[in-house]
Amino acid sequence: xxxxxxxxxxxxxxxxxxxxxxxxxxxxxxxxxxxxxxxxxxxxxxxxxxxxxxxxxxxxxxxxxxxxxxxxxxxxxxxxxxxxxxxxxxxxxxxxxxxxxxxxxxxxxxxxxxxxxxxxxxxxxxxxxxxxxxxxxxxxxxxxxxxxxxxxxxxxxxxxxxxxxxxxxxxxxxxxxxxxxxxxxxxxxxxxxxxxxxxxxxxxxxxxxxxxxxxxxxxxxxxxxxxxxxxxxxxxxxxxxxxxxxxxxxxxxxxxxxxxxxxxxxxxxxxxxxxxxxxxxxx
Length: 283
Fold this sequence. Notes:
Layout: E1 2-18, E2 24-43, E3 48-53, H1 64-75, E4 81-87, H2 97-112, H3 119-127, H4 135-138, E5 142-145, E6 150-153, E7 162-168, H5 174-180, H6 190-194, H7 210-216, H8 218-229, E8 234-237, E9 244-248, E10 262-268, E11 280-282
Helix pairs in contact: 1-2, 2-3, 7-8
């Protein structure tokens, strides 16, 4: 079974307050993007995890695909599987690649073994693996609240626009991003803002991480400035960074920067989402 695993961008991100459990309450609109990892999962005589593409740091047991399989093992009688991850989504980018891999592993195991778990059951399991993970069970545009795991569908479609995603050579620690953020409540709803034309988003649709991150890593801020100067209708950092994206009405010119070290640049034409939210299973 082969599965294409999308990433996400954040259309605005408000940090509301710090919770007693140490997490933060947030508000953000998550939008699925077809920049994909590829998961191949098959039944096997013994458990195997391999990867290719972008190098994955850490041991097997640290990988979220492995953690997702082990989690399913705790709830269902599963035989071993062989998992191969073709890693295309950069890590430390705020694109949710690791969370997506975990969620789609849950979905693949559910289908491979005909377990019959509902999406709600899978979301509950996904929430134990990471705040972004439940979003990828449905992979449709959603308003994320709580620590990111409380989801409500949002009617928004960017189909037909061009999306340019740029990740500089530097990464951003999520923990460091939160340490520098200033929680603020009582602002306009993100849902109301995204119902306006995209040309009106800039200046209204804010990512609260940007102020601190741009001060500590000016190259990330310069990428956003360049995307706007290239004609982006809207540009912002995704999540806690370090990737920055721009939404364009037509194909943008190449992104260049003599003083910016890019790890990766992705140009995506079809930014619309699948109405079903189902993964692409090639069995």
